[in-house]
Amino acid sequence: QDGDTKVIGVSIPAATHGWAGGMNYFAQAAVERLEETYPQLDFVLATASDPAKQVNDIEDMVATRNIDALVVLPFESEPLTGPVQNVKASGAWVTVVDRGLSVEGIQDLYVAGDNPGFGRVAGEYMAEALPDGGKVVVLRGIPTTIDNERVEGFQAAVEGSGIEILGMEHGNWNRDQAFTVMQDFLSKFPEIDAVWASDDDMAVGVLAAIEAAGREDVQFVLGGAGMKEMIQRTMEGDAMVPANVTYPPAMIATAIEVTAAGLVSGAPVSGEFIIGSVLVTPENAETFYYPDSPF
Amino acid sequence: MGDLVTEVLALRDVSRSFGPIEVLHGVDIALRPGRVHALIGENGAGKSTMMKILAGYQPPTSGDVLLDGAQVGFASMGEAEARGISMIHQEFNLAEQLTVEQNIFLGREMKRGLLLDKPAMRARTRELLARLECRVSPDRVVSSLSNSDKQMVEIAKALLRDTRVLIMDEPTAVLTRSETAILLRQVRALREAGTAVLFTSHKLEEVEEIADDLTIMRDGRVVWTGAADRMNQHGMATAMVGREMSDLFPDKTGQPGDMALEVSGLSVPGHSRDVSFTLRRGEVLGVAGLIGSGRTETFEGLCGLRPATGEVRIFGQPVRIDHPWQAQARGMCYLTEDRKTRGLLLTKGMRENLTLQALAKFDRGLIDRRAEEAALDQAIADFGIRGHRGALVGNLSGGNQQKLLFAKTLLADPQIIIIDEPTRGIDIGTKQQMYDFIRRLAAEGRAIVVISSEMQEVIGLADRILVMRHGRITGELGADATEDAIVRLAMGVAPLSPEQETAQ
Amino acid sequence: MTAAKAPFRLRMTVIGPILALIVLFIIGALLNPNFLGWSNLSNVLARSAFIGIIAVGMTFVITAGGLDLSVGSMAAFIAGLMILVMNTALPGMGVGIGIVLLGMAVALFAGLVAGLLNGLLITRLGIEPFIVTLGSMGIYRSLVTWLADGGTLSLDFSLRSFYQPVYYGGLFGISWPIIVFAVVVIIGEIIMRGTAFGRHCAAIGSNEQVAKYSSVRVARVRLITYAALGLLVGVATIMYVPRLGSASSATGMLWELEAIAAVIIGGTVLKGGFGRVWGTVIGVLILSLIGNLLNLTDFVSPYLNGAIQGAIIILAVVLQREGKAGS
Amino acid sequence: MTAAKAPFRLRMTVIGPILALIVLFIIGALLNPNFLGWSNLSNVLARSAFIGIIAVGMTFVITAGGLDLSVGSMAAFIAGLMILVMNTALPGMGVGIGIVLLGMAVALFAGLVAGLLNGLLITRLGIEPFIVTLGSMGIYRSLVTWLADGGTLSLDFSLRSFYQPVYYGGLFGISWPIIVFAVVVIIGEIIMRGTAFGRHCAAIGSNEQVAKYSSVRVARVRLITYAALGLLVGVATIMYVPRLGSASSATGMLWELEAIAAVIIGGTVLKGGFGRVWGTVIGVLILSLIGNLLNLTDFVSPYLNGAIQGAIIILAVVLQREGKAGS
Ligand SMILES: Nc1ncnc2c1ncn2[C@@H]1O[C@H](COP(=O)(O)OP(=O)(O)OP(=O)(O)O)[C@@H](O)[C@H]1O
Ligand SMILES: Nc1ncnc2c1ncn2[C@@H]1O[C@H](COP(=O)(O)OP(=O)(O)OP(=O)(O)O)[C@@H](O)[C@H]1O
Ligand SMILES: [Mg+2]
Ligand SMILES: [Mg+2]
């Protein structure tokens, strides 16, 4: 590459579930858009199916593409800390998205969602929607720190509100597995007031299971992450999907854009941007509805 | 009879059952050092079972195994071998994907420190094979060897293990006469060295030639035992079969009919070149030649089992055969010489095997089981197959497997039948039945090719004889051919004159 | 291993899986009274139908000495394709039986083609089935991700409502997936035990050489097993799509492993030569019931579900192989 | 399949994988000049060491007619256990060579035990390796999730810095994983070709009965293959932990598939009877280079990476099996 061209590496987890799919979409869209806007920028986008593969990708970017900046959404924090530290040591700009590294101060820019907040907002809504308490079941994601943080946030928020968590099972952010788990919850518990699906993909499976069972006792399902179909249902006032909690997959695009702009202008923006999780209700749903997103 | 003190290995009143069926009923046998003991009997008489008990591969159900006069119970396969008893199995006991050397030394590798001493093993392999006048390379993979070479490897494997007792189950079944002679020479050498040898064969002339002691079995019982010189071939056959044996070969009543098969310029790359011959209905065509002369490959090529080129006409129609099922659809079937790896599904029952090739006959949307059972009844009756009906084919005795293979191919009702080594491992009584059967098939108007390494068989059975050498037909002989004439053609020694011999 | 024990052992390999299933039923009934309820059993049966239908096809492939690792991603790809075609055709055709039939035809056709492709690579080029299907597994998984642009392909909502009864509806209270599964099993069992094709599969898996020498059309039979499996993946997809109306790269994840496990738990031999369809059904049921049971009870940490599942799989097979110990 | 072609075919199966590797190298060099740089090659080699070390062990297991699906989750479990033990011992022992040695001993011991367990279930109870290791795969995967309480187990930071040179450091500019990998490969190749054990593995895989009749201790040899594989998983983990310093349920995901694929691409026969360690190395390199190559350029959608990977795997094997067509 000639001296003027700068290379930005983008390393993200593969699209193995809906949210990640959305994030992949936004990352690619941002890369395409920015490559057009800034001819002097070159992007390398790599998607990884596990942490080890992601470390490989980052190593390759340094060894073969001489990246000037790295935008990384770590699969997991711990394993990526060292390799990203190495990238930083090589002199490149580092932007970390969504999941913080386990050592402070590596990244120049940090754009993140708020996982405990995600759970808390959901829990607070639940407590408010069931003022007299109620029986809820929880579907959890893939066993990860993210999921743990969310669930802890949720549990803390519903504590003392009279809400009883009947059961929690892992639906792994997967529609089919959520469907199966919910069917079994419905067999197991004769009375369920609400479901925290914790993710809109899982909410799709949960809603299908409830509908198929014809159970009237379940008042609503609270998903999360703002899938467009779900936002739409909220917008339209569907009683089963009265709310949502955001966790925008588009944060990756923001991070890439800010990084690119900084690199081009030579006046990089460093700092921390925490994108808080917001409660989506029929009133404000329209502002969170992106019909063109795949998620 | 034998002196007890000198017995090295013996069975006393041994019985053996498989499930509810007893196949050995209180047999005795005694092997003595420096003597060759022959064990003969009909197919399924229990010879192999008895040998396996002697060699520690199977325990007796009741009775004793005596080694040096003391009762032993071999706990593992290795134990008998460690005590100087080794056995060559009737069916090949070689790991197909391993090389000759690896097989010969399997379980007894020579080491230098922790590593294998390959040069030494290779040298020893060469030496052993040279003793057997077998010219395969120690590095050849066994699956690429011909049957006879495999047998030689098995023999070399047994020779390697310095044994006091060598047990050989039909070692000569896949050997030609010259190879048999080599083997027998080795056996004599072992006898001189004081080894006790036990062997079985359905070729009674060999038994007569080499045996010192003789045991004859019938239906799981010993019916005769004693010094071999007290019995001649005729006596043996009679004692084995339990009836008087008449002439082995049927009359050649062949009435050649229409042309059935015309082959011209058939070549199987790497094995045979430019083979041409014709065959009429009602004819039995013998194909003779030394081992490795490419007979098997030529006819496998003809039947679409290997890539081949050439012109073939069946009943006057030019045909192109790339797959065996195409040959069968034209009425031509090949009966393999290798029943264990190409002929039968050893882990399946008799019924499934019998009908595999002719399954279409039983297919009425679903397979008609009752018809299958009836066919099995018929085959058991026709070929005298012995063995428990529900047994796995792998558990049938070797000869009975061969009979089943025969029955299986014939069930497809082919008009042209190519039979490769039809009587390998079959007892003399059944052989006679098989020859009759082949003749009858010819008389029904079928065309038959018999490939055989037994010169007598070709001469006794065939109306015409083709002789092959190095993948080419070197001559054609009439029904009155002599062994000498065949051998000359097969060896490439100038015959009297080709015209003289190809009289027809 | 003596032949004397054969009858007993035979019985164990037959009774073993059934016994394991019965034990699971008893445990389930003890743990949760709802377990034996019709609604729970019907749920479990209906959702095991996808894997079940595929596993029936897999039984033939494995019996004939083959293997197919691509079924899960093939299902995802077919589902994606089907949704795409139906959505595209919607403006022209409108919601109706026609478009559903079109979708079904696409699924069956795509399944058949995908199966044929696997089969042709395996039989014509002589490559190990493991490699061919590992490769096509990656290819289909990628293709569906690409079709969905990384996200989820969703069937148009109106279309989905119309199509939904194919999963949720049924006859006489038995839902369609269960009926289709049953039909596939019965046909499969008949083919395996009663027809020349089934015999040929077993013969090829047992010893290819012998099959060839016995005039069996080895390559064709093999090819048919893969094509049939592909077709059955298509059938499974037809049942799958109406359930949630979507397909993504996560669809059908690890179905191949589950299908192969079901086949082997059912007593089919992985190296080929012997297969039984009814055993596969029991294998499928055992696998789905374990998951169901673990969801119905909560006496262990959900993190350990996988461990229990693994242990039960091994136990189910131990039960049926008892007699073989020390062989 | 004619014998005349045998020498050619033999050559193709030997040259095939090497040829595929060379082609990959050429493509790589053309795509990006940095590809052949030492830093890139060293990265690729070092990271393929984990799978590589495991694949060497897998070569023996497969050659002896077995299979092990549990290696990936076994690695995750051992990594988790190792981290847990080291973190627990830290207050007492302090950062130093002692605690690293303790961690290594734990990893090797756990690997050996895990391998022995698989092996004992397979040889003593006579259960299909596929089922046993599918079961233990679930068990270990669950156990590590449980140990990590659903999250990630991380090595104490100070400890990690101390331990890191085991992955990142090296001798004469060659990093430790590469050295260890090379040593394992050389020993593996010697054992496979030069010792009785290697021959016994091939004999068992080729024909168990024959091996038994030749007084090969079949059960013991089998057991040793699984135990050795477990031990090698332990060795791989020792290299892996300093690299990422953590273990979670995502660790070692699909390693088993990759290891088996490497073994088969290298020319070892899946049904057993023939294996070659050097081939496995080439298989491992091919697989890691594909991943590396896809990162070198960005001319395809990342969604399609899997498809390209799948196609190349098939092609690499087509190249080597050319002569077999129609057999
Ligand atoms: N493992 C087994 N299970 C059941 N039956 C068996 C088994 N082994 C042998 N048999 C039966 O025992 C009988 C004797 O068989 P054996 O192999 O000893 O005969 P043989 O005398 O060697 O015959 P051949 O001359 O044909 O080789 C046969 O009926 C056979 O079917
Ligand atoms: N599967 C095979 N692959 C490669 N070479 C083979 C194979 N089978 C046989 N050969 C070789 O082909 C040659 C001819 O084989 P074979 O000995 O079977 O011929 P034959 O004339 O039929 O003899 P016979 O039938 O008496 O054994 C031999 O040199 C043999 O080693
Ligand atoms: Mg016998
Ligand atoms: Mg021959």
Written overview of the protein:
- The complex is a heterotetramer, with one copy of chain A (about 300 residues), one copy of chain B (about 500 residues) and two copies of chain C (about 325 residues).
- Chain A is an alpha/beta fold and about 300 residues long.
- Chain A has helices at about 20-35, 50-65, 75-90, 115-130, 145-160, 175-190, 200-215, 230-235, 250-265; strands spanning about 5-15, 40-50, 70, 95, 110-115, 135-140, 165-170, 195, 220, 245, 270-275, 280.
- The mean pLDDT of chain A is about 85.
- Chain B is α/β, with parallel strands linked by helices and about 500 residues long.
- Helix content of chain B is about 35%, strand content about 25%.
- Chain B has a six-stranded mixed beta sheet with strand order 6-9-10-3-11-12, sandwiched between helices. A six-stranded mixed beta sheet of chain B has the order 18-21-22-15-23-24, sandwiched between helices. In chain B, strands 2-1-4-5 form a four-stranded antiparallel beta sheet, with helices on one face.
- In chain B, strand 7 and strand 8 form a beta hairpin.
- In chain B, helix 12 packs across helix 13 and helix 12 packs across helix 14 (about 400-410).
- The termini of chain B are far apart.
- Chain C is mainly alpha-helical.
- Chain C has a single domain, classed as ABC transporter involved in vitamin B12 uptake, BtuC, CATH 1.10.3470.10.
- Helices cover about 75% and strands about 5% of the residues of chain C.
- In chain C, the strands form two sheets. Chain C has a two-stranded antiparallel sheet with strand order 1-4.
- In chain C, helix 2 (about 40-65) crosses helix 12, helix 4 runs antiparallel to helix 5 (about 130-145) and helix 4 (about 95-125) packs antiparallel against helix 11.
- Chain C is globular, with a radius of gyration of 20 Å.
- The interface of B and D includes residues 57, 78, 81, 96 and 108 of B.
- One adenosine-5'-triphosphate binds next to helix 1 and helix 14 of chain B.
